[in-house]
Amino acid sequence: MNRILQLKIILIITVFCNNIAVAQKQSYLEFLKVDTSAANSYFYGGTHYVQSLIQTDFRSNGIYGQIGFNLARLFSKKMILGVTVDFKGWKGFNAWKPSDAFRDDFNAAYLPNVTTPEDLAKAEMIKNAINNVENKNFQGNYFGRIGVSFSPFPRSFGGFMIEFKRGYCSFPIYGYFDNPNIDNADSDFAFFDFWKVNSGSIYFKPFTFRSSCKTQSFTSSRQDWKNYITIGFHYERLDLSEGEFYGINLQDVVKDEFLKNHGIQNRFGISLGIGLY
Asked: Are residues 30 and 43 in the same domain?
């Protein structure tokens, strides 16, 4: 089923590219061969602020950066097909907590399956954070991911860019300075980590539907800069059963029924930012 979906996506992208190229009275391959002064560079990037569209128990809001290497530049100055890295190194200001339903179901399913007092203490730390006990709470998030980006017309027709990535996500828990059960380098935070997070994004430049980015350099002209404003739609799949907290997993802390009901967090978001491509 996944392979059929991938083939459908490739077919849609191919038809989209050829339809636009036909409007210019040339095939997409001919379009790629023609040199222009508005050539893409080897590197691209940007910065974006993403906000959740649907409230989930684990948040994904915040500002993140992006940098990529355009492999397609080796054979074309018209498209982007590159390796992209996203990074969010600033957790943000606000504390947050899971929904009441998540908290109540977690408490009802809480049954640590661990063998040492240290691991039992770690399980209690997770429970305290979910219940916001004694100001132990989640605060923001970090993430890093790497993947593939594709944009057939980076500087015109909306500058659509499609991305598929995989990486990690970390949720800091405040209030555990100098705790003897974890090694958090004397930080005030402990970290609830996920190492296999899949995500996808679609960005577009709303001001390039009727015009294109004419220059290769990024000038201070307001007319130039507005063409690099991006709007993005994001999807991320978070599997809570893979959550790791200093050697123990969430599936070691709760009954299986809880993960069946709350284990998969499908996170949707929208972003506003600057895309330098």
From this structure: no
